[in-house]
Amino acid sequence: MSNPGKTKVRESPVPMSECGAAMALDIVPDRWTWLILREMMYGVSRFADIQADIGIPKSVLSGRLTQIVENGLARKEAYRDGATRTRHAYVLTRKGRELSPVILALMQWGDKYLKDGASALELTDKRSGAPVTIGIVPPQDALPQRVLKIRPIWDKGTPAEDG
To answer: Mean pLDDT for the chain?
Structure first.
């Protein structure tokens, strides 16, 4: 039995107010936000395309996109399709693009533990063509994001055509 009168109060090793992960979850708090950022990482930028790809209700998507822009993860860019009214595309900012390794690491984990191990994406070094994985490396050994090539694989084991 425990002794409530003698219970020592344990302090957290890292207070929530000092934890970068906890702070990040304040601006990327839910599944929908992560999936929207994933779509943008793939280059999908139009509201209707994001909505169709992930099946998110329009009102939820609108609210999440507003938050993503307000938090500096993406910016709006106006465009027109023919004679239609002006619409906005959503493009990741540097701050938003730098979440890509987090999304890719989560994907790799899901591929390993929740799927058959095969990935829906091929990750390669643009310079050498060598496959890459997301991991923990010393800063001097890190591959810059600008040389990472992300390519969907549509059929089991068959790479998609480059566009």
So the answer is: 88
